[in-house]
């Protein structure tokens, strides 16, 4: 009898542990089980450099799919407008890891729509100016912020030529485990590093783009989709004059 009870208990616990993979703890917040994931077991090395190619000719005017996907993936859509703030003020202040922007060629007058995010520079100005080393670049090229070391001085925001960083002004009530945040810290796109470090190969913005304008992968692998796309396209670095060797490139501009 006791053996039968133990077997039933084990079966129950097995089912319960799987159900916990999608347990809601607050609106939009889930506890994800790592049982089926493949977390990184080895240290990050420079054998890989992650990067992205964005074909602006495929970016539809008014499309915000990549922005919305980024917000959802990283819990930015869970942030609440401060009491008493106007919609206009909140829209200007709210954190964004991707912004949908328009740029114009001064010579031809051509206007391009594109998503603007951290460019993951090889020589990131944000890292150079950070007094606490909270801003850092991983060996695989991903530029990140250590929230435990960030003191909120915002030097990195001033140094970034792409205006790609956001500051958390208000207390945070809800946040996903993949993107913890707190008042007084700076944030920016991290190429969905929580995916990459758990066996993933894509970013949320790439997955959400129905126009297939975004290609992501290993720039050092000649057989990767992003390397092959870069080899075929005429590409541009934003602010190439700064010689930052960005990990994000654009075509169609």
What labels would you give this structure?
single chain; 253 residues; alpha+beta; Alpha-Beta Plaits; 4-stranded mixed sheet; two-stranded antiparallel ribbon; 24% helix; globular; disordered N terminus
Could you walk me through the main structural features you see in this protein, from its secondary elements to its overall organization?
With about 250 residues, this protein is an alpha+beta fold. It folds into 2 domains: about 30 residues; about 200 residues, Alpha-Beta Plaits (2-Layer Sandwich). Helix content is about 25%, strand content about 20%. It is built from 8 helices and 12 strands. A 4-stranded mixed beta sheet has the order 10-3-12-11. A two-stranded antiparallel ribbon has the order 1-2. β1 and β2 form a beta hairpin. The chain is globular, with a radius of gyration of 21 Å. The N terminus is likely disordered.
User: What average pLDDT do the residues reach?
Assistant: 85
CATH topology of the largest domain: Alpha-Beta Plaits
- Please write the string of helix (H) and strand (E) elements: HEEEHHEEHEEHEEHHEHEE
Strand content: 15-25%
Largest sheet: 4 strands, mixed
Distance between the termini: 73 Å
CATH architecture of the largest domain: 2-Layer Sandwich
């Amino acid at each position: 009898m006791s053996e039968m009870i133990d077997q039933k208990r084990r079966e129950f616990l097995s089912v319960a542990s799987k159900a916990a993979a999608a347990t809601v703890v607050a609106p939009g917040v889930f506890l994800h089980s790592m049982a089926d994931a493949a977390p990184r077991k080895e240290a990050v090395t420079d054998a890989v450099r992650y990067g992205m190619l964005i074909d602006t000719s495929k970016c539809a005017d008014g499309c915000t799919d990549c922005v919305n996907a980024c917000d959802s993936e990283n819990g930015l859509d869970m942030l609440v407008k401060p009491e008493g703030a106007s919609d206009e003020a909140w829209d200007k202040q709210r954190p964004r890891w991707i912004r949908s922007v328009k740029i114009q060629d001064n010579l031809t007058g051509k206007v391009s729509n594109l998503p603007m995010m951290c460019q993951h520079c090889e020589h990131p100005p944000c890292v150079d100016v950070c007094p606490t080393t909270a801003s850092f670049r991983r060996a695989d090229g991903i530029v990140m912020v250590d929230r435990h070391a960030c003191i909120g001085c915002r030097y990195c925001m001033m140094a970034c030529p792409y205006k790609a960083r956001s500051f958390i002004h208000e207390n945070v009530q809800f946040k996903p485990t993949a993107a913890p945040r707190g008042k007084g810290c700076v944030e920016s796109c991290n190429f969905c590093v929580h995916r990459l470090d758990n066996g993933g190969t894509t970013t949320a913005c790439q997955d959400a783009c129905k126009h297939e304008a975004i290609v992501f992968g290993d720039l050092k692998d000649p057989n990767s989709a992003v390397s092959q796309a870069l080899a075929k396209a005429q590409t541009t670095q934003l602010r190439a004059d700064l010689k930052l060797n960005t990990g994000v490139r654009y075509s169609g501009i």
